[in-house]
What we know:
The protein is mainly β and 112 residues long. It has one helix and seven strands.
Amino acid sequence: MLSFFLALFIMTGCIRNYEPVIKSISADPNPVSLGGIVNLSCNATDDDDSSINKNETLSYEWFSAIGEVTVGETSNLATWTAPMEPGLYSISCSVSDESYGLDIATIEITVE
């Protein structure tokens, strides 16, 4: 009976999913001129090294209510085309793993 509980404990410990964590989100240049293009980068990690999920792929999605976001060659990179109106705008990146873990970060960009 003890071996059953030990095996159950070990198995459930091996399938723990750690949420992805966004370490940084950056925008270059910031501030940007009207209609300018900003290079975006989102760097995230997923601390699943101690579980069977350690080879999970991270998926990145970019969001902006105003302006146009274009995903780059790899999904953690994107560009944002600023609007022709000056102001402070928010761009968000969400990172998810294959086990439905999620993290979201937002950066503010000044358009002048």
